[in-house]
Amino acid sequence: MCGIAGCSGGKRGIKSVMNILTRLEYRGYDSSGIAYVENNDLCVIKSLGNLQCLRREVSENTNVDTVIGHTRWATHGKPSIQNAHPHLDASGRLALVHNGIIENYQLLRSGLSKQGILCNTETDTEVIAKLIGAAIVEKEETGAIINAKTVLTVLAKQLGFMKGSYAIAFLFRPLPNYIFFAKNGSPLVVGQGQGATFLASDENAIKENCTGVLRLKDGDIGYINYENICIYDKKLNKKKVHLSKIDQDVEAFNLSGYSSFLNKEIAEGIGGALKTLRRAKKEIASTLPDNIFLTDFDLHITACGTALHAGRIAKYLIERELRIPVSIDFASEFKYKKPILSNKSICIFLSQSGETADTLGCVELAKSCGATTIGITNVKGSRIAEAVDYCLYTYAGVEISVASTKAYLAQLALIYALVFYLAGVKGKKLSFSLHDITYILHRLENRNYLSSLNKYLNLIKQQSSLYFVGRGIDYFVAMEGALKLKEICYIHCEAFAGGELKHGSLALINDSSVVVAILTQKSLIDKMLNNIHELNSRGAKVILLTPFTKLAPEVFGLIKLERCRDMVSPFCSIKPLQELTLYVAQKKGIDPDKPRNLAKSVTVE
Ligand code: F6R
Q1: What is the number of H-type helices and E-type strands within the chain?
Q2: Which of the listed residues 97, 152, 293, 430 has the most CB atoms within 10 Å of its CB?
Q3: If you take atom 11 of ligand 1, which residue's CA is the nearest one?
Q4: Is residue 248 pLDDT above 70, yes or no?
Q5: Phi, psi of 489 (to 5 degrees)
Q6: Is-catalytic flag, 7?
Q7: CA–CA separation, 506 vs 484, rounded Å?
Q8: Is the torsion defined by CA of 306, 308, 312, 315 positive or negative?
Q9: Half-sphere exposure of 121 (CA within 13 A, CB side)
């Protein structure tokens, strides 16, 4: 993953790059660093920990105009100052930042060592810096004049030796106001501001400073300096630079009075779902070809993490309500299981970021099998959006907190809209209406569960393991509730289908167990209450989320959910579970926006 940043022009380059890095921090936050040239010296400052740590070490008001920066999510080598970027070439004149993975770095590294050039870190990135640096020295030794063109020639040649994905940016001390870049696989965006140019892994990070931005294509190399953005293809043919205007969503980056982005985004979830639902009907009809679901097809859903949990609800609804079989897989498994796909297959890929490498890999695989591909993503212009045949968008707004909350609700909204669309095409009647969904979303708009959850927070905070149970559609919400608590509160959580308990998992339950149970399906009340009895009999403390409080179930804790149609209940049951995670994180003193070891865009497999 990792985020890379660059700025050339203006007097406050360090400040600009620190601001860009702040917006890229969701991509990784185990260490960070910047580099710039000052008084003909190449200065590199690195720090372990999140950006706050780097901020303490740099002087943001230093008068330098050209700076590169990096925020890291470790792939090769543990988080350490040494492994943090920027990395230097052997001459100490070139500093480079990288996002991606160089797969043949070991081979390249041993080639370098045979030339007497040793790497000092465990990273794949250092190899890139050392290779380019050594090739420039070689060029100098032939008497060539080193200017931007020569550096690009060297860069193009050296990239030819690298296998893998990269977005790189580097400074070369003799050309202090140039930032050279290259892209293959990992995202990279350049932007033009007033008297300055910028680059970053994501356009949201620079758009505030820019009048126009351009997402680079794989194979692009080039440079930015004070005024110019120059882009070339692999063969060094100059490309025309067409910058596009950008939508500003500056509010998304402000906490607006909330204690964390997670807190803010949970609150924004219902609004995003309503917006998605409002736009989806028209957009699905205008995006998908009329006959797409009219001929014979087999349907597949692929995603990761939270997006996969939304996908599981899609499968449940499509099968139960429309009697259409759906296969579902983790993207990381789908790609390697030799899936049965043909030109009759329709594959749906769910991804908030639209950048997840595992999911993107599956899109490519599906296309190579002749399948029709449909993306559902929150980010226009993202790699998955561009790769699929048809893309449907969710309107959750920019999601910053690493854990997905509002995007999940928007994915649900889009899934329900797609189910309506499919029902229309197939002439089927559903057990719920669009009105049922909008009605319940409006009821949930100002609903907050703090007072109901408060008395259980200390108990949950103390747990090292926690179980979630549900049946039917509730099981998939239980999975998502477990994932949220696991990733943000560092509590081992597992979700069980209620009926499966007695087939093994019940052995884990004793009088110190805490179980969060969900019961929203009328037809499953008796079965789920039986499961709760089984848990009670083993001494578990069951906290039950249900609209059926009148049944007065014998439980340790009861959280009343809004009453709605059975198949619409995920909107109701996920809200208190997202809030539970936030409040437990607050009790534990964890930064809920940046859980350890994780990053928001998972751009490596
Ligand atoms: C969990 C979470 C992750 C993502 C997963 C897929 O809170 O956010 O599980 O859902 O990494 O990411 P996208 O949806 O961007 O493909």
Answers
A1: 16, 24
A2: 97
A3: 305
A4: no
A5: -105, 0
A6: no
A7: 22
A8: positive
A9: 26
Q: Closest residue (by CA) to atom 5 of ligand 1?
A: 305
Q: What is the model's pLDDT at position 21?
A: 97
485 close to ligand 1 (CB < 6 Angstrom): no
Is 43 marked active-site?
Answer: no
Amino acid at 556: F
Cis peptide leading into residue 289 (ω within 30°): no
Give the span between the Cα atoms of 350 and 415, in whole angstroms. 10
Identical topology for domains 253-444 and 447-593: yes
The CATH number, out of the four listed (3.30.450.20, 3.30.830.10, 3.60.15.10, 3.60.20.10), of the domain defined by the range 3-248:
3.60.20.10
Q: Give the number of other CB atoms < 10 A from CB of residue 106.
A: 12
Catalytic: which of 46, 183, 264, 600?
600
| Bridge partners for 495 per DSSP | 468
Tell me how far the alpha carbon of residue 480 lies from the centroid of ligand 1, in angstroms.
11
State pLDDT tens for residues 215-237. Answer: 999 999 999 999 899 999 999 99
In this predicted structure, the answer to whether residue 300 has a pLDDT above a threshold of 90 is yes
The H-assigned helical ranges of 427-472 are 434-444, 450-462
| CB within 8 Å of 113: residues ≥ 6 apart | 119
| Whole-number CA gyration radius for the chain | 26
Question: For the chain, what are the domain ranges?
Answer: 3-248, 253-444, 447-593
- Classify residue 554 by burial, with Cβ atoms within 10 Å: 0-12, 13-18, 19+: exposed
Name the CATH topology of 447-593: Rossmann fold (3.40.50)
Instruction: For 98-140, give the DSSP string.
Output: EEEEETTHHHHHHHHHHTT----SS-SHHHHHHHHHHHHHHHH
CB of 358 within 8 A of CB of 602? yes
- What are the Cα distances from residue 476, in Å, to 113, 479, 481, 594? 52, 5, 9, 24
* Amino acid symbol at 414: L
Question: Sign of the CA dihedral 225, 230, 232, 238?
Answer: negative
Find out if CATH 3.40.50.10490 is the number for domain 253-444.
yes
Report the amino acid identity of residue 386: E
Is any ligand 1 atom within 6 A of the Cβ of residue 378? no
Give the tokens for residue 409: 């609700």
> What is the C-alpha end-to-end distance of the chain, expressed in Å?
10
Q: 385 and 354 in contact (C-beta within 8 Å)?
A: yes
Does 242 score more than 70 pLDDT? yes
Question: What length is written for the chain?
Answer: 605
